[in-house]
Design goal:
With 382 residues, the chain is of the alpha/beta class. It has nine helices and 21 strands.
């Protein structure tokens, strides 16, 4: 029996798993081999060091185009390599729509292996749930004999895409335990002395690191509304969160967080004070007849009066007026109504302030009775 895994690149959370799997396969007298499409990808800077990898592997030659931030792999020799290895079971561990993964699905050699797709996706993280891409994904999923998944949520999603029951194998990701080990008391004391901090007490540290949106959403779901402590540990390429008995690990994005302070209006001296619920309902009413694609809405502000206007390509128009507290000059400005509603939905005070500079600059939305979060909404030309 032989097992071959075809995946994108060597990553810390899979190479350690492959090392362990290779040891188990050797003890059982089975062959195990990993095919990598490339050594690395843009934005993912894990060093490739074959001497530290304890599993048999091959890095395929190929082309690696990037389009609009999406990185693909095309390795024409993948079928020839699979024909040499002749695996009984083939696990595809990468994006389902990567050209190399699609080519590997062409069973042109005999006997054809049982094909499993290693899927970490689930319904909450899917980008395309309807349309052509969703249809293509279902067609591809139906070609697999089974799925390797990290949890029940991913298993449910994979079976739903396949449209009928398939064999499911649980393969959780593994990480380098030393890299993410909990720091010892001694190492914490050394760090405190190095930073000039007191020996006791908690420290709030602001770290300039970016995590993926998918990871942040999953962490938000796990946190829920409960109380308790959360422990964060930041590595070179990953962030780890310990929530009770749950350990959550997410990769970091290569880059620098934007200097958001530059877009916060500094001289917004035209202040509108409005009842939050009244403004929210008015925006909802007016938005009904806004352009479905751009969702544009015009605000006309006069002393103590706010007029909201919207229209669409069908020549339908909506207009609504509400009373506000405003003593400045008349001004007209356009916004995407969705962004204004997003800001109002997370403010829990009865009144809100909208600060404007002019008709071409962003506005600053804040709670009137509290000094807390700030919401910046960019204008749009109508």
């Amino acid at each position: 029996m032989s097992l071959v895994v075809l995946t994108n690149i060597p990553t810390p959370y899979r190479t350690s798993f492959f090392d362990a799997l290779a040891e188990e396969a050797a003890r059982a007298g089975k062959r195990f081999h990993v095919l990598y499409c490339a050594k690395t990808e843009p934005g993912r800077h894990w060093p490739y060091d074959a001497s530290k990898m304890r599993h048999a592997h091959t890095v395929l030659r190929g082309f690696h185009p990037s389009l609009t931030g999406i990185h693909a792999h095309l390795n024409p020799g993948v079928l020839a390599e699979l024909n040499l290895l002749k695996p009984d079971t083939l696990i595809l561990a990468g994006s389902w729509n990567t050209p190399t993964m699609l080519v590997a699905g062409l069973n042109i050699y005999s006997p054809a292996p049982r094909r499993f797709f290693w899927s970490e996706g689930h319904a909450d993280a899917a980008l395309h749930k309807t349309g052509l891409i969703a249809w293509l994904r279902r067609r591809v999923y139906r070609t697999f004999d089974g799925f390797a998944v990290p949890n029940a949520k991913s298993a449910e999603w994979a079976i739903a895409q396949a449209g009928s029951p398939r064999q499911v194998v649980t393969l959780p990701n593994a990480i380098d335990a030393k890299f993410f080990a909990r720091p010892s008391v001694e190492s914490r004391q050394v760090a405190r002395r190095h930073l000039g901090l007191e020996g006791e007490g908690r420290v709030l540290v602001q770290v300039s690191a970016l995590s993926s949106r998918k990871g942040v959403l999953e962490l938000h779901r796990m946190l829920g509304d409960g109380d308790g402590e959360v422990e964060f540990a930041l590595g070179t390429n990953h962030v780890r969160c310990q929530i009770g008995d749950i350990r959550f690990t997410s990769k970091l994005i290569d880059g620098k967080f934007p200097e958001y302070s530059r877009v916060i209006p500094a001289n917004a001296n035209r202040i509108i004070d409005a009842d939050r619920e009244t403004l929210r309902q008015s925006l909802h009413r007016t938005a009904i007849l806004s352009n479905e694609k751009y969702r544009g809405i015009r605000l006309s502000i006069k002393p103590n009066q706010l007029t909201l206007q919207a229209h669409n390509p069908e020549q339908e128009e909506a207009e609504d007026q509400i009373e506000v507290v405003y003593a400045g000059e008349e001004i007209e400005i356009g916004f995407n109504v969705t962004y204004l509603l997003d800001a109002l939905s997370v403010i829990d005070t009865s009144r809100v302030n909208i600060a404007l500079t002019d008709s071409n600059s962003s506005c600053l939305v804040t709670a009137a009775e509290a000094d807390g979060a700030k919401y910046v909404v960019m204008p749009m030309r109508l």
